[in-house]
Amino acid sequence: MTDLPILRSVLFGTTQIEFSIRPANRKTLAIHVFPDGSVVTYAPLDATEAEVAEKVKRKGAWILKQKRQFASYPPAIPARQYISGESLAYLGRHYRLKVREGDIRSAKLIGSFLEVSIQAEDDTDVVESLVQAWLRSKAQSVFDSLMKVCVARSARIGIVDSPPWRLLRMKKRWGSCTKDGTVILNPELIAAPKDCIEYVILHELCHLKIKNHSRKYYRLLSQVSPNWEQLRIKLNRAVEWRLDY
User: Fold this and answer.
1) Is the pLDDT of residue 181 over 90?
2) I want to staple 207 with a disulfide (CB 3.0 to 4.6 A). Which of 146, 177, 195, 233 is the partner?
């Protein structure tokens, strides 16, 4: 099998399932269904195409269920324009952006509006900078508080101290855990409800114990977040910038 993705398809009942094969240095085959409906398999280097296709066919019902689930999500929201009247998600609720001129550049939440004060010569780049700074500041504060809550919940699996953590905007992940045990959280996650943020933090805390996504890992995650599957669905439905986490 080559190192390049291989495109194939199988017939499950009357439905054609297209999938790609990505060779990987692993012992077992993994199947991932992404929000855009694509199906990707990560196959051991010695696996044959026929073996991969057979596994996809056996998992056909599950694959189609995942595809239907993603298809039920609302359409992706266009990129922000940073103009008055635009919707902005924060902790699972939507607020309206209100841009006005003022003496001091600032951003603050007032009722159902995020009010951004700019000066006469400012353009939308300044509005974007103020909004992003406000969101990042809130993310730093909220995530720090929820990290303490999640560490307390994780005592049952042997995690008693808060790990070092930092913010990093990522294109494809809500969070990650480095080899040295640093938890990285995407500041865009501040758009989600608090229980979804807790799920992501708990997900990463469990990686302090088990680095991979094996069955053993998910058993561990279920101990600290029994309803993690529902929270994952809620997270992907709740936020503007959806990721397959």
Assistant:
1) yes
2) 177
| Same-domain status, 230 and 148 | yes
Q: Look at residues 30, 46, 71 and tell me which one is the last residue of a structural domain.
A: 71
204-228 pLDDT, tens digit per residue, is: 999 999 998 888 999 999 999 999 9
Cβ neighbours of residue 236 closer than 8 Å, sequence gap 6 or more: 35, 73, 242, 243, 244, 245
If asked whether residues 115 and 204 sit together in one domain, one would say yes
Contacts of 25 (CB under 8 A, 6+ apart): 45
- CA atoms of 234 and 196, how far apart (whole Å): 7
Same domain for 102 and 61, yes or no, is: no
Domain count of the fold of the chain: 2
For a pLDDT cut of 70, what percent of the chain falls above it?
A: 93
Q: Are 23 and 1 in contact (CB under 8 A)?
A: yes
pLDDT tens by residue, 118-128:
999 999 999 99
Write the CA distances from 212 to 120, 134, 137, 178, 206, integer angstroms. 52, 34, 31, 12, 10
